[in-house]
Known about the structure:
Layout: H1 10-17, E1 18-20, H2 31-41, E2 49-52, H3 54-64, H4 66-72, H5 80-91, H6 98-111, E3 116-119, E4 124-128, H7 131-142, H8 145-156, E5 166-170, E6 176-180, E7 190-195, E8 198-202, H9 218-229, E9 234-240, E10 243-250
Parallel strand pairs: 6-8
Antiparallel strand pairs: 1-2, 2-5, 3-4, 3-5, 6-9, 7-8, 9-10
Helix pairs in contact: 1-6, 5-8
Amino acid sequence: MQMGTVEGDPGVLRARFVRRLGEAGYGRESGIVGELDLLARTGLPVPEGVVLTRESHREFVETTGLLRDMRGSAGRLEDTHSCALEAQLKYGSTSIEEELNRALCQALINLGASEVVVLSEDLTKSGLKSIPEVQVAVRDAWLSLEGLVRQIKAAARGESLPTWPILIQRELYPEYTGWSMAGDLGEGPGARRSDKGRVALYDIRPAHRAPSSDRESIAHVTLEAECLLGGPIQLKWGLKGGRWYILSTEQPSR
C-alpha cells in the first residue's frame, strides 16, 4: 500500500477514532463489524484489521455539515430517499480532514497491508492498494443511501443520528472459500462443492459431539462463533496456508 508517515501522536488519535480489530468493544448490536470485533476479541481466527469507531463517524457528520443537513431534512420525511440522494451527491466528494484523516492514515501505516478490504453494514470494497482508495471507500460507507435514510428518519423523530463502525481489514486471497453454519439447512449432511474453490458445509455436529481433533476445524470455529453471538449465524470462511479464517458473518436464511 502506498503510504508514508504522518505527524502527531498516533496512540491518542487511534484511541478516539481508530482501534485494532478485537479491541473496539463492539458486539452484535453493531452489525457485521461488531460481530467480527467480538469474534476477534475472543481469539477466533479473524484476519487482522482496524476499526473506525462510531466516534469517527460522528466527527465526519459534524465537521462536514452533514449533521445540519440531516436535521434540515427532517421535515421532508415523506421523501427520505430523495433527501438521502441529495446528501450523497452534496458530500460525495468531501475529503476526510485533519485529525480524523491523520488517525486513518496512521492506522493504515501501522497495519502494513499491501491490500485491504473496507467493510461496513452497507458496503464492501476489496483490493484497495492506496490511502486515497481507502479514504474514498470509507466516505462511501458513511454516505450509503441506506445509512442516510436511517439518519434522516432518526432526525425526524428527534433522535440522535445513528452512526456505525467501519472495518479496514488485511486482504486475504484464500485457496478455498465457503459458508458454514451449525444445524441442518435442509440440504442433508455432508459437503456440497458449488464450484472450483468454493465449498458449503452443512449439518455441523453439536459441540458436545465434536471430538478433540475438530478443535481447529471450521466446524468447531462455527459452533464457537454461534455460541459467542448468542444465536444462529452463517460464517463466510477462507482456508489459506492450512489455516481457517472467518471472513464475514450473515444471518442465516431459512
